[in-house]
């Protein structure tokens, strides 16, 4: 499967986005910590959270490292940045130009107040 496909697939699930948000807020969390975060929003077993983390690891969005007795999970924002550059950036760049042209159009089409009416 293509790397972009893996990233899009990973981002498609709300629980995985929740895990990424949690790691963005504070990086280097254990499975237990991430399970607690998920269970604030939706009931899920430790096994379910671990399955979501594995998919995030396959998409290279999460990197896990053993630290002592714990396995800590860290956010890797590079694949999201690559998706942004490849798929989102080019559209928002054009949207910015389109927005400027639309603002100009509205400005030119809006009648100016009559200067003779001012006291």
TrEMBL record:
InterPro entries: ArsR-like_HTH (IPR011991), HTH_ArsR_DNA-bd_dom (IPR001845), HTH_MetalResp_TranReg (IPR051081), WH-like_DNA-bd_sf (IPR036388), WH_DNA-bd_sf (IPR036390). PROSITE patterns: HTH_ARSR_2. The keyword RNA-binding does not apply. Pfam families: HTH_20. The keyword Mitochondrion does not apply. Residues 1-95 form the HTH arsR-type domain. GO terms for molecular function: DNA binding; DNA-binding transcription factor activity. Keywords: DNA-binding, Transcription, Transcription regulation. SUPFAM superfamilies: Winged helix' DNA-binding domain (SSF46785). This is Helix-turn-helix domain-containing protein. The lineage of its organism: Bacteria, Bacillati, Actinomycetota, Actinomycetes, Propionibacteriales.
